[in-house]
């Protein structure tokens, strides 16, 4: 909503991610999480997966509308301006169209 990027630390503070690690420690951290999941109750893991999938299951009409808005935004002048300004390392000039 703010058209900005969050740092890894900000993602951690907002609970978007569980942990922040250096790139060279990524696989080890992922394996630790996988081991923790494998050691957990299979019933609890299945329930958590079902809840996650349910939260991602939106009505088809909502998904279609979201795709429409995404395409409309990408094809707009502002949709081209954002990536162009990023590449040129400058602040975007939004036109609202």
- Low-confidence spans: none
**Strand proportion:** under 5%
Would you tell me the structural class of the helices and strands? mainly alpha
Work out the radius of gyration: 19 Å
- State the separation between the terminal residues, measured CA to CA: 17 Å
Please state the overall shape, judged from the principal axes of the Cα atoms: flat
Model description:
The protein is mainly alpha-helical. The protein has two domains: 51 residues, no CATH class; 40 residues, no CATH class.
Task: Please render the helix and strand layout as text.
Layout: H1 8-13, H2 26-38, H3 42-56, H4 60-74, H5 77-87
Distinctive features:
single chain, 97 residues, mainly alpha, 2 domains, 5 helices, 62% helix
Could you provide a short overview of the structure?
The protein is mostly helical. The chain has helices at residues 8-13, 26-38, 42-56, 60-74, 77-87. It starts with 7 loop residues before the first helix and ends in a 10-residue tail after the last helix.
């Amino acid at each position: 909503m703010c058209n900005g990027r969050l740092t890894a630390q900000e993602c951690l503070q907002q609970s978007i991610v569980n942990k922040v690690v250096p790139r060279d420690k990524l696989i080890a951290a992922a394996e630790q999480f996988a081991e923790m999941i494998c050691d957990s109750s299979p019933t609890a893991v299945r329930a958590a997966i079902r809840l996650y999938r349910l939260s991602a299951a939106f009505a088809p009409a909502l998904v279609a509308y979201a795709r429409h808005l995404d395409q409309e935004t990408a094809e707009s002048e502002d949709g081209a301006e954002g990536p162009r300004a990023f590449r040129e390392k400058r602040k975007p000039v939004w036109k609202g169209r």
